[in-house]
Sequence to fold (507 residues):
Amino acid sequence: MVLSVVSRESEEGSSSFVSPVFASRYVQEPVPRYTMPEKSMSKDAAYQLIHDELLLDSSPRLNLASFVTTWMEPECDKLIMEGINKNYADMDEYPVTTELQNRCVNIIARLFNAPVLSKETAIGVGTVGSSEAIMLAGLAFKKRWQQKRKAEGKPFDKPNIVTGANVQVCWEKFARYFEVELKEVKLREGFYVMDPVKAVEMVDENTICVAAILGSTLNGEFEDVKLLNELLMQKNKRTGWDTPIHVDAASGGFIAPFLFPELEWDFRLPLVKSINVSGHKYGLVYAGIGWVIWRNKEDLPEELIFHINYLGADQPTFTLNFSKGSSQIIAQYYQFLRLGFEGYSKVMQNCMESARILREGLKEMGCFEIISKEEGVPLVAFSIKGQKKSLAFKLSDNLRRFGWIVPAYTLPAHAEHITVLRVVVREDFGRPMVEKFLSHLEIGMNEIDIAVDVPIPRIRFTVELRPSHDVIDGDACGIPKAVIVSQQVEHIEKNIPLVSGKTKGVC
Fold:
């Protein structure tokens, strides 16, 4: 079964074949879509055929839905191509690449204020994204909790995690795949992140950790990890538990250290035991790299670490997959080396400035309500004032005409009556693009206003056929006569069905 279906054959009207465009200079017969061709074709034909089809994809730089990096310097692109044939799993064969990963882990750990001395090695691993990083961190919490419960002679079959309802779908995946109950703090209007007070109230002896989000997918807001730490420490002291905190800093981990250095959210807080971050978001690397860092070696149970030697030497490994490319690890180290603290700070400041210009432009239009916060991820989430849900989706569709991809979605339970549009500001979305986007947004809104103010009516006629007494050339004509006996005007409002569950996100 194919899980992802974007379009069907009946919609494309081209049966089961791909019709070449400019590749017709190389091939004369249609190419099958879903079966392997019987014969080979030239490299030019294969390239041109795929190239032509990919032209119908959206432009990555106009995809304002995604947090994922879409631009890197040519020098880094060159390094990526030089390392694209290296399998990172072969650590003994590629020791320098392994060393670059270890350097990245240590750089990130110190950026997050891990208690690592100058000559000590930090505990962490590179992953294919924050989804895998969260799976690994969750498994570590589950195993550590189970070990403690077994030692105390208590049941260990009903672990749970407390989160906000605003968490990304990968948390739901972890809970389902690894049999952990997900206890979600519901949102409410005007408060779209996890409430630390309510979260701590939901903690019980089976809670393996509380997951806080540094940069909510819904509106970019940072959750109050410091308050969560204080409240949880009080409850732990009262109950004798040692419930820890994991910080999902997929989006905000490469923002807070540079823009909000005084904000306490990381390993400065004693209950924070692990942190994940996406290198392919504001770490400024193309898709395919994430990181998870543990506070101490004791927070990563040894039984989860596998040791292999059939690639040439003893190699500890803790990943969900085995083989993976080396390019993104190399690219991450390039960015750390190339930009340094100063460069990352400037990039993040520029992103926040673009977000500010966008926010002010939306306010000037007067028809939008901003629901994102200024302290958080550089994105702008907004809703249409006093309008119906469907208008946000219509505006999203209108913007696609100009090439912009802007997601429209409803908030989770208890705030599902609010429909939001979200623009993620990345490094490549500078001021000129912001101004162009605002002009296209105004055009899109004007078209919606016209559609709302002057709805297109549907007129329903009731027609009866009556005998005709018309005479043509002296003869009676037996053609029935159509007579309109009634008419009714109906205004059509198209409702867009919404699918319940997590809104999609890229990790």
Notes: The chain is about 35% helix and 20% strand. Residues 492-500, 503-507 have pLDDT under 50 and may be disordered. The longest helix spans residues 327-365. The two ends are 24 Å apart (CA to CA).
